[in-house]
Amino acid sequence: MSSSPKHVGAARQKLGSLAFRFAPFGVVALALLAQIPIYDRSIIHVDEGQLVAIAARLLRGEVLYRDVYTGIFPGLYYSTAALFSLFGSDVRVTRLAQVAVNAGTALCLWLLGRRVMSAAWAALAPLLYAVLVVVGFPGLTMFNYSPLSLVLALFALLFLLRQLEAPRRADGIAAGLLLAGCALTKQNFGALTLLAFLIVILLRWRDGALAGRGLLRTLWPVAAAGGLASAAALVALISAGAGPALLDASLFALGRTQIESYADPFPAILGPHPSDDGRFVFLYTPAALYGYLVRGETLFGRPIPVWLWSGAIRVAYGGALLALAGGGLRLWLDRRADPPRRRRETRALVVFAGVLFLGIFPSAIWSHLAFVLAPLLLIAAWVLEGVHAWLCTRSAATARVFGIGVAVFAAAGTLAAARISFDVARWYPVPLSLPRASLHVSNDQAALYRGALRFVERCAPPRAPIFVAPDMPLIYFLADRPNPTPFDLVIPGKVDGSLIVERLEATATRCVVYGPRIYLQFAPFEELFPQVAELLRTRYREVLRIQGGSVEWLGLVRRDAS
Questions:
Q1: Which class for 331: exposed (0-12), middle (13-18), buried (19 or more C-beta within 10 A)?
Q2: N or C: which terminal CB in the chain sees fewer CB atoms within 10 Å?
């Protein structure tokens, strides 16, 4: 017996309803699957090292800013300390936390996308974000203040849009708390998100979308929740004696040093790229592609030519600008065609993506671009949907070819990400097997960290202070030894070299692990920290060279130590 058209239509409707209901789970599953091969690969001794070393100090009772120097707001550090207290002190814990952050980002992109476009096009942004996580390896696989602040900002936007459309106290409180969390994690992302929200609210007010409900009635839960949460966190730090240091380090000193040490301009979109400039290649090349270049490896059996390297930079940076321009153009073209609610929502998304994009400055390097790309992927999907809809009104065949082309592009990106994941796993095959780092690393990384820990364990008894310079604070965490100074030397800022010397002398710190070659983005160690360099030269002697490939660390011991 054949089914009637009515029954077939009902069955399709039911299937579509189920697919929509379970789509968020599919998005999260996709994001999780994309990260499984790479989430525990490599060890990042700069950013990741600073985070876990500071979190360990907080667990020992020290207070951020008062006892420990950083220019970033406290959210990530105290979150990491909380994770360590719950699940144990291991870098793997933070990697799993970042897996959750990436899955949350993909989910929020889907939820925001479904507010303004069809399911098929809304799925494009989370898919591309999953690809970005792999292409951006390792920047988006380590727990970091930028991705955490961004996911909080995205969810804050989602709840703000819900609150502006149909006020409910729970949505307003959620938006306020998430906005506070965003700001307390990374101050410039918080400030830009707040600016974007104010613009969105102003535009809603001007077009009468809040008429009849009142601005105060709609927004007081947002303001109250965000204000109280921020005040509580700041009051806690101030009452612990960190107030003046907090203001100085996170606002005044950070603002000055960002301009002095991190003024990396936007790369040329159409002009030449200096392929012979190692610093430029390092800072602007998409991270996974840089991995192939530095290893001299092939991708899909072919070497990476200069045109592909340069083209990747143009696509990454030019694509971001094109998405913003396309979003603005579609807003203008659809200003009368879209229903009022959808017009308000799309305008909010474009405003948010455009304002947050400013967070890439003053250092427009690849890793900073990757941190602001997620909302731009959403705008790009919305623009492509608009192009497809316009083509449908002109030629169904052309529209079909365009849709197939986008699908092929997404499939190619997925295939490339799968290949990169395979290669990343191959680059870092060795279990590090250290008590606080259940990670897979390269042979060179394993040699460096195992050698450094053997030196520290022989040189310094448990709980004795050690000093690590200039950009390997992960050793403090792995060796479970305290840093007698407030500084980890990762971020050049208001670092007091005389205070470092004073603390090392006062505690008679016996052992130092020193890496003569500092992070490529910064000036030589002797220029940045001359007093510390002089102390290491005159008061310490080299007793060991720790070799890991082309990188060499030195084991130093005080000259007057027995």
A1: buried
A2: N
